[in-house]
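The methods section describes the discrete structure representation at length, but only in general terms. An entry of this sort, consisting of the sequence and the corresponding backbone structure tokens, reads as follows:
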Amino acid sequence: MLLLSCIINRNLRMKKTIGIIALAGACCLPVTTAAQEAPDSLYHRLVGQAMDYTLKDSLKQAEQLFREALKLDPTNARNALLFSNLGTVLRRQGRADEAIEAYTMALNITPYSTAMLLNRASLYMEKGREDLAYVDYCTVIDLLPDEIEARLVRAYIYQRRRQYKEARIDYNVVLRQDLSNRTARLGMVMLDEKEHRTAAAMEEMNRLVQEYPDDALLLKMRANLYLGQEQWEAALLDLETAVRKDPADAEVCVVLGDTYLKVKKKSDARAAFEQAISRGLPRAELAPRLKACK
């Protein structure tokens, strides 16, 4: 489950927010009265400058201009898009809580915007607020039943809640659209393992490793399956390969060392733990393991 969590979180971090693009449409709204011309002209100028600053990664300036535009007419329906873009700018500054507030303000105006719901839900996941993320993902799925991101993350939440039947339904919806979706396939492997369908889990895991032979994460996941079945030598082969393929991963070295200890290869275990230390883990953290290698 931990490795699947890494994949879900990586996908969420890589997700592209679309609020900045959507705002361009708001700048094209017609002006209906002469009294509106001056405020609208200023509004368009502020928004245009804010978007330029955002594209240049001048996020502080963009934030200030978006906030100024919002103050011009606090009751304007167009502010949903401004709040959404403000949320994107805040998120890119690492200010997740403030970004959530901005997306929430946007959703107070347009509660059925799936893009804004997905943005807020992914931030809730980053903050560990899964219950709130679950509500947003459910709303998205009610509006767009085939939305892949919402299905994948909701399935992951179901797995954490041990609602395996519900998780399997969501993964199957994704796989009906895309049989090759790796996250959904890995999710099904984890479900099969949890439900003691060991042969099915290993069969699919073998297919995935064959399709993506250079992916160290898949090798670690298969090694975990082998470890669960106490197939130490098979696990060692995958872990040794994973160590070579991912030079930055210290944790896999620890698992490799632990597995060497299982088969009484103490010198190999010590070498693996020393490699973990060279990759950044504190020696004090591994002291008990190193002692076991004597």
